[in-house]
Amino acid sequence: MKKIKVILLSLIIPVTVIMVWSIATARGVAPEAILPSIKSVLNAFRENLASGQLAKDLGISLSRVVKGYFAAVLLGVTLGTVMGMSNNVNHIFSLTLNAIRQIPMMAWIPLIILWFGIDELSKIVVIILGAFFPIMVNTFSGIRGTPPGYIEVARLYKLSRWNTFRKVYLPSAIPQIFVGLKLGLGISWMAVVAAELIASTEGIGFRISDARSMMKPDIVIMGMVVIGLVGIVMDKLLTFVSKKSTPWIGNKG
């Protein structure tokens, strides 16, 4: 009963938006060139799905996300852990990383294109840059949030740095690390679309940009809806992994 209530509540806004959209297009409140009907968007979805174009675009974008995201996970978790466990390393990196973190992602894209061109590498670099900071910051916070008493016990037992990390820091930091992983994954998906919108010849972001230039709002909206749905699926998958990895936390969402 509780799950049904949650589902119904979560559908209130989407159903309202669809109803308003349907009424607005049926009564001609906005021209088709600005706000296409739901039927037009569904037709665009069916056509792109049947032709294989949608699957191709999604495959390209998701491939970029996978490459960039896992590189960001490796870098972010590693550096966040080392900074959290060592004050000296934290002092070396914290000022520089905090300064870089304040620069908006969109400000980096022209420079990244200048350095790496418009090929595959530039998109992956954008994803890494976008996902790295939430992963690193949350890993650092999780490591630093380890109760001092646990660390003292590890010292009394003379555990090595690796065993201290594995048996003390990591179990304590895992929930916070997963928060960073979820944030990083969402930003990865947004970053690849943004990069493809600006400089690309393939991918879901490029398809939206191309449809905009060709005055095809039905494909633009179709692409936006697909991006949102794929983002939800990725978030739910990572939430499932988080729950299975930290059963003692009782995660929600």
Automatic annotation (TrEMBL):
One of its GO terms (cellular component) is plasma membrane. CDD domains: TM_PBP2. It comes from the Bacteria. It is found in: Cell membrane. Residues 58-238 form the ABC transmembrane type-1 domain. The chain crosses the membrane at residues 68-87, 168-199, 219-238. The keyword Transport applies. This is ABC-type nitrate/sulfonate/bicarbonate transport system, permease component.
